[in-house]
Amino acid sequence: MRNLIVTLALLAAACAPAAPQPAEAPKPATSATTAPAPAATTAPAAAAKPTDAPKPAAPAATAAPVATTAAKPAATNQRGGELVVSMFEDADKLDPTLGGTAGGRLVFTNFCEKLYDLNAAGDIVPQLAAALPEFSADGKSVTIKIRPNTKFNDGTALDAQAVKVSLDRHKSLQGSRRSAELASVSEVSAVDPTTVRLTLSAPNVALLATFADRAGMIMSPAQLTKLGENFSNEPVCVGPFQFKERVQGDRIVLERAPNYYDADKVMLDRVVFKFIADDNVRTANLRSGDVQVLDRLAATDVRAIEGDTASKVKKVTTYGYAALSVNLSNTSGVGKPQGEVDSPLAKDPRIREAFELSLDRNGINQVVFNGLQEPGCTAIPPFSPFAPKDVKCSTRDVAKAKDLIAQAGVPTPIPVELTINANPVYQRLGELIQSMVLETGFNLAVKPLEGTTALDTITKGEFQMALTVWSGRIDPDGNLYNFQHTKGPDNYANASDPKLDELLDKARTESNVDARKKLYADAIGLVQARRSSMYMYFQNVFTAWSSRVQGYDMYADGMPRLKAVSLTPR
Asked: Residue 102: which of 561, 552, 559 has the closest Cα?
C-alpha cells in the first residue's frame, strides 16, 4: 500500500494544476464608487510531498502552472488602509455548508479558513490542521491533529469538538452541498482537544483535497448555536479578517480579526468585496483607483492592462471549466424523483449530439475570449495526472448534425432556451452559440438571469439548457462526483446511470494512479455519450491589481489571498 501511495504522490507532484453553477450575475452594473447602497445587515507544517505522503491520500501535491506575472513581496509593510476587491459574481449564502458559488468562495478564502489549503506552488498544506492527516493501513480511519492555541474570530476556542460540530453539520444538515463530498465519513470523533478521528465506510483518496475547500471550513459552534440556520447573516470562523456587514447585491465588508493566530502578518484594516458584474465597469474602476484588485479581468482587457504601468496582471491556470448542462429529468428539483422533461433535447440523445456538433469550441474561444481560454470537452483539465489522453473533442459538422436531426424525425427549427448568468461575457457567448446552432436547425433563445436566481432556477429544474461555470477542484472527484453521480447535489440534469455511479464511487477508493485514471476515462466516456453536460472550455483566470497593492496573489484555485496584502500611499 505504501508503495502505491508514494507512486501517487510522485506522479501528482510532477504534473501542473474557477456556478457547476452559473457565475453569479448582476443587478444592472454600476460604478463601484457611485452605486447607491441598500441598507446594510450588520453583523504550519510542510506541504504534502512524495517523501511524506499520507497513506491513501489523493493527489496531495500538484505543481501549479507558471504565471505570466508573479506577485511580488511587499515593498513596504505599511499597516492599515482599506482594500476594495471586485467580485465578478455576488455570493450566495455565506455559510460553508450551504454555499455553492464562486463568489462565496472569494470571500470565504479570507475569513473562513479550512483544515487544509493550497499554497502558491499548488501543494496541499495544513491550515487549521497541524499536520497532514494520518491514514490507517486499510484507509478507513483518518486522524487529523488540530492547530493548538487557536481562536475563532468571536474569541472562542478552536478544538477537536468544534471541528466535529462543523463536519457533522456539513454531513447531515438538510440542504447541505457538502454531504456528497463527505458521504464516506460515517463517524467524526473528538479523541482529545487537538485530535479528530474520522471513521470511513470505505477508503477515500479524495478526502484530503475535499478538506482543502468548503467541506474543510470550520465554523464557530457558539455562533452556530446562536444563529442556527441564519448563520450566514453573521458568520464566524477562523481567519485573518472577520465579517462586518453585507449589503445584498452590492458589497461584503470584512475587518481585521484581532483574535487571529497569525494577526501580526495581517496589514489591512478592512477589505470591501464589491459586486461589479460588468467587465467594462470593473476595468474602469481599476484604472480610476476606486477598486484596487480585480478578481476577474476580462480576456478582452488583458493586453490593455498589461501595458498599463499603474497595474499588474497575472494569468492563473485553474481546474475550472464551463459546460452546457441539459435538463434530462429534473422536473421538481435536484435529487427528487425523475420526471419527464418535454423537450427534444431531453428525450433524444441524437438531438443533443446534433447540438454539440453545431458548436465550434475553437471559434468560441477566439471570438469571445481572444483565444485566451483552453477549449476542452471533459471535466478534467489536461494538466491533471488523471486527464484521459485519448479523448477527442467533437468539431463542428453541420451536415452530420442535420442528418442526426432527420434521423430523429424532429421538425425544425427545434426550440431551445439557454439560461445564462446575466453578464456581458456570457451574453456574447450565448449569442455566438445561438448563431452557430441556427444553421443546423435549432432556434436558441438566450435567457439571462441574475446569478443567485439562475442557480436557484436550474436547481429546481426550471430550465432546458444552462451555461454552468465551475471554479474547479484539485482532485478530479471534485469536478465530477457532485455533478454526474445520481446523488450529487449539483446533478442539475437529475440524470442517473448506475454504471457511472459505480465508476465514480470506485474512483474515490482507488489509490493507484493508473487504475484511477482508467476509472475516470471510463466515466468521462459515459458522460460524453449521455451529454447531460457538454463541456466547452477550461478556465484561465486573469486577475489584476493596482501597483499600490503589495503582497497580493491568486493560487490555482482562482481565489485571491489577501492575508499579507498592504497598500502603499498614493
From this structure: 559
The residue whose grid cell reads 497595474 is 311
Helical packing angle, 513-530 and 477-484, nearest 10°: 40
Domain-by-domain residue ranges, the chain? 318-540
Q: How far is CA 145 from CA 131, 193, 194, 241, 343, in A?
A: 6, 9, 6, 24, 52
Q: How far is CA 501 from CA 368, 477, 482, 487, 526, in A?
A: 35, 12, 11, 9, 10
Q: Give the contacts of 459 (CB within 8 A, at least 6 positions apart).
A: 333, 334, 492
Cell 474602476 sits at which residue? 285
Residue from 45, 44, 48 nearest 60 by CA: 48
- Alpha-carbon torsion (15, 21, 22, 26), positive or negative: negative
Model's pTM, two decimal places? 0.82
Residue 63: exposed, middle, or buried by beta-carbon count in 10 A (0-12, 13-18, 19+)?
A: middle
Q: Count CA within 13 A, CB hemisphere, residue 528.
A: 18
Q: Which helix (H) or strand (E) holds 287?
A: helix 279-288
The percent helix, strand, coil of the chain (3-state, each to 5) is 30, 25, 45
12, 436 Cβ separation under 8 angstroms: no
* Cis-peptide into 413, omega within 30 deg: yes
Distance CA 382, CA 472 (A): 13
Mean pLDDT by 10 residues, the chain (570 residues): 38 39 35 39 41 37 40 61 94 94 94 96 95 96 98 98 98 94 97 98 96 97 96 98 96 98 97 94 96 95 94 95 98 94 97 98 97 96 91 95 98 97 92 98 96 90 96 94 95 97 97 95 96 97 96 94 94
Determine the residue type at 181: E
Note the helical H segments in 15-71.
none
Architecture category of domain 318-540 in CATH: Roll (3.10)
Which secondary structure element, helix H or strand E, spans residue 180, and what is its range? Answer: none
Q: From residue 523, give the alpha-carbon distance in Å to each of 55, 327, 387, 470, 500.
A: 25, 19, 12, 19, 6
List the grid coordinates of 161. 469538538
